[in-house]
Each structure stands twice: as C-alpha cells, then as structure tokens.
Amino acid sequence: MAIKAVLFDLDDTLLWDDRSINEAFSATAQLAADTYGFDAVSFEETVRNEARALYATFETFEFTKMIGINPFEGLWGNFRKGEQNEFRMMEQLAPNYRRESWSRALRAFGVEDDAFGQLLGETFAAERRKRPYVYEETFQILKELKEKQLKLLLLTNGSPDLQQEKIDGVPEIAGYFDHIVISGVFGEGKPAVSIFQHAADLLGILPNEGLMVGDKLTTDILGSNRLGMPNAWVNRHGLQATDIQPTFEVSNLLDLHTIIDQLNEDK
C-alpha cells in the first residue's frame, strides 16, 4: 500500500520551540543580570534547575509527563482549557510556579525580592510569546506534500490552550492540516498507541499507509513503532540513536520526499 498521509509533530519539528525558549530565558536572565549585577548565563542555568525541581514536586507531575507538558511550558502556559481536573489544578499552580521559580533563583544568588521574581516570571512569558519561530523548510515541505495529494495531520503533545496558542502564533500553518490532534484534548499523549491509532482513524488509513515525522525518539518514534507505522526521526543536531530505532532519519524536512518515494517503491 502507498503512503497516503504524513503525521507531523509540532514542537522542534515544524516550530523551532527550543530557539523560542532559549531566547526567552536569555532575555529574562539578562534583565536580572542588569538589575542585580549577576552573570546572566549562571543565573539562567539556576532558574532552569529551580523550575525543573519545583515542577517535579507538584501533584500534577505524572499527569504532565503523560500528556507531554514540560516544566518550561509551565513557565508561560495558562492551562485554562482541558477537561481533566489536573488542568484546573495546573491553572491554579501556574502563577505561583512562575513567580517562585524565578524567586528561588534570585535567592540562590542572595537576593530576596519576590516582587522582582514576579516581574521576571511575567517577562519570560511575554518574551516567549514574542517568538513564534518556524524552521526554514517548514512551509515548503507542507506545501509540496499537499501538492502530492497527501493527507496531513498534526499530532502534538501538550495542553489544549498552549498548543493552540503556538499554532495560532503562526496563523498560516493550520490550513495545511486535515486534522489537528492535541494530547490534552484527546486525554493521552505520545507514545501511547491509542493516540496514534486515533490519528490513523481520523485519516482513514492503515498504520503502514502513514508516515510519522518527529524529533523525539521517546514519543514520536516509539509510539509509531508500537503501532507499526513507518517514521522519520528529525535529528537536526546529530544526536546518537538509542535502543528506540526509527525507520528513517533526516536532518531536514525536505528529505521526506525521498523517504516517501522509497516507501512507495517498497510497497
């Protein structure tokens, strides 16, 4: 059977989320450095560590891992949507989490200033929202795959409102997709087989008629492997593969054309 559909991950596959987050941290840490004379790089490393440690103490931690919401998303997400009770808990936790992550980093540098911690938390969220980056080839590959009459589905882990905000931040991207599946709406995240099967059902395809494209071995590749769907690991940084083996590996999304042609020949 020929490939009929391509399923794309969102963060760090189509959207350059790492760059957005890194620049937001850098800008916010620089504000702290300018105000108190800190070394900006050391302060940024400290707040990242404080945020991760605090996030892991929350009752919602296991839920966020299952849905696929990382600590740094908690630093700018509002979590106002989603049916599960854990989203309501996260909505209540988020404001204090943002303030306390930055305030703890300030304390680690000998500064007690919760008001400034609050300001830094607000600054980080604003800086992240100003940076909806996409990769250079994102729109070209989506356009070319649509021209090949392939169905496209966006399959992303995360909270309903935050992932939708990321999509809305690049307004032209949604129109390329026949379906958009967000784990926080579905109720289970990658690598659960159920969300991949749900995506295949929406597309009306068998697993071997789809190609999953994503940057994370532990979610995108593992989950599609479990369903028996071919996949392409987007490895832009030359990382070493683990015991999770992708069907294909690419460093640029435009290489998907060659993969799809090969899969169609093998059918």
Give a short synopsis of this structure:
By secondary structure, this protein is of the alpha/beta class.
Tally of individual helices: 12
Largest beta sheet: strand ordering: 3-2-1-4-5-6
What's the CATH H-level homologous superfamily of the largest domain?
A: HAD superfamily/HAD-like
The structural class is alpha/beta
Distance between the termini: 5 Å
Radius of gyration: 20 Å
Approximately how much beta-strand content do the residues carry?
5-15%
What is the H/E order? Answer: EHHHHHHHEHEHHEHEEH
Overall, the morphology is elongated
In total, the number of strands is: 6
CATH class of the largest domain: Alpha Beta
CATH architecture of the largest domain: 3-Layer(aba) Sandwich
The averaged pLDDT comes out at 97
Number of domains: 2
User: What profile does the largest beta sheet have?
Assistant: 6 strands, parallel
- The amount of helix comes to 40-55%
Question: How would you describe this structure to a colleague?
Answer:
- This protein is α/β, with parallel strands linked by helices and 267 residues long.
- The protein has two domains: 145 residues, 3-Layer(aba) Sandwich (Rossmann fold), CATH 3.40.50; 113 residues, no CATH class.
- It has twelve helices and six strands.
- α8 links the parallel β2 and β3.
- α1 crosses α2.
- It starts with a strand and ends with a helix.
